[in-house]
């Protein structure tokens, strides 16, 4: 990979690493998350507030406000930089590989699975296989389009497919075709509400497909990943599909324990894994919403949420500046290595 590509990948990885460090320091994932994404969608409001408060006579207060403003502003810049780096990495560097070797592409994989499931009889096959007495509702495609919610979309990679009706959302979108939305905290209700460039709420039982492509490892805690999967279950139509793609450049077996653990957690939510494939740089999985909402006890939920771990969750953050160097200290270092890298391709 070129130096430019490596630099872009470092910007992306550093944001993930910083979140994990913050969580280790404070142990409070809620405040870490609020801090991370606070005010991202309301830069205009922040600027207005700041200008209004500039008349404040108390110098200390003004200094504190300036500092706060600087903090907020630097965070916004950080997330914007992340968005543009991720966009460039995917569309310039990874795209070259997609063209030369289409089998390596998570986008191609997702599209070919959706074609099979929704347009080539896959849905019917799985309905029969499920051996359920339940009367399955007919999953209807509106105008023959598959409704897709692409969470953490960044640059709307699925927008190119005419057969898909895609709602792309991201904490900090790289493009205007992607709506701003914090999926972790978005309210779910009867209708989807969009205001300008932001999604304010999402309707349950609405989507044929939800995509988490390179999303879950962004979160520093297993329970945040679990929350996303629970939300996906509520938002999907019955028999709908959750696609999860997670980066890993190692051989399939190296992280099979992690993938098994995710599968168990998702099964408890009501998702059945119906397709798994290891591509050169990613694990690709399709989960089918096979049951209506399950009622879980609080202690079971906690245990199940912990199953959504990734190896980096166990790093000592004081070592994390030199994460790669320090891997040898961990018993699961082998396992962890694959996940410390977003796909970094050797040229
Ligand atoms: C590694 S990028 C993946 C981009 C794209 N899906 C792909 O496969 O190339 C992860 C994206 O998830 C977004 N993200 C992280 N947390 C999110 C949240 N709570 N709600 C919405 N998007 C989120 C980030 O802003 C980032 O753009």
From TrEMBL:
The UniProt keyword set, sorted, is: Methyltransferase, S-adenosyl-L-methionine, Transferase
Q: Which GO terms describe its biological process?
A: methylation; negative regulation of TORC1 signaling
RNA-binding is among the record's keywords: no
For S-adenosyl-L-methionine, which residues are the binding ones?
A: 152, 170
Q: What Gene Ontology molecular function terms does this protein carry?
A: methyltransferase activity
EC id: 2.1.1.-
The record, for Gene3D superfamilies, names:
Vaccinia Virus protein VP39
Q: Note the superkingdom of the native organism.
A: Eukaryota
Answer whether the UniProt record assigns the keyword Chaperone to this protein.
no
Q: Which InterPro entries match?
A: Bmt2/SAMTOR (IPR021867), SAM-dependent_MTases_sf (IPR029063)
Q: What does the similarity note say?
A: Belongs to the BMT2 family.
Q: What does this protein do?
A: S-adenosyl-L-methionine-binding protein that acts as an inhibitor of mTORC1 signaling. Acts as a sensor of S-adenosyl-L-methionine to signal methionine sufficiency to mTORC1. Probably also acts as a S-adenosyl-L-methionine-dependent methyltransferase.
What is the official name of this protein in its record? S-adenosylmethionine sensor upstream of mTORC1
The record lists the organism as Daphnia magna
């Amino acid at each position: 990979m070129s130096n430019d590509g490596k630099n872009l990948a470092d910007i992306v990885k550093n944001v993930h690493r910083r979140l994990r460090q913050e969580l280790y320091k404070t142990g409070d994932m809620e405040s870490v998350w609020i801090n991370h994404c606070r005010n991202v969608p309301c830069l205009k409001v922040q600027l207005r507030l700041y200008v209004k408060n500039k008349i404040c006579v108390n110098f200390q207060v003004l200094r504190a406000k300036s500092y706060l403003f600087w903090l907020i502003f630097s965070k916004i810049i950080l997330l914007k930089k992340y968005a543009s780096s991720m966009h460039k990495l995917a569309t310039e560097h990874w795209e070259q590989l997609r063209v030369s070797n289409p089998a390596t592409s998570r986008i191609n994989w997702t599209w070919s699975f959706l074609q099979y499931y929704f347009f080539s009889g896959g849905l019917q096959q799985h309905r029969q296989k499920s051996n359920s007495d339940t009367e399955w509702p007919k999953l209807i495609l509106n105008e023959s389009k598959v409704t897709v919610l692409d969470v953490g979309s960044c640059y709307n990679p699925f927008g190119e497919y005419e057969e898909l009706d895609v709602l792309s959302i991201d904490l900090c979108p790289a493009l205007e075709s992607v709506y701003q939305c914090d999926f972790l905290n978005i309210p779910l209700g009867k209708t989807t509400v969009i205001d300008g460039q932001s999604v304010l709420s999402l309707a349950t039982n609405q989507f044929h497909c939800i995509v988490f492509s390179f999303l879950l490892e962004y979160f520093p805690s297993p329970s945040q990943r679990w929350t996303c999967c629970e939300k996906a279950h509520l938002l999907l139509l019955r028999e709908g599909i959750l696609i999860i793609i997670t980066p890993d450049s190692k051989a399939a077996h190296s992280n099979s324990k992690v993938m098994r653990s995710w599968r168990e957690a998702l099964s408890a939510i009501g998702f059945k894994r119906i397709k798994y494939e290891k591509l050169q740089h990613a694990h690709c999985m399709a989960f089918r919403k096979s049951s209506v909402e399950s009622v879980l006890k609080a202690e079971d939920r906690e245990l199940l949420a912990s199953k959504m771990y990734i190896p980096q969750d166990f790093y000592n953050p004081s070592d994390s500046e030199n994460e790669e160097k320090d891997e040898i200290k961990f018993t699961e270092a082998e396992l962890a290595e694959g996940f410390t890298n977003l796909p970094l391709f050797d040229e």
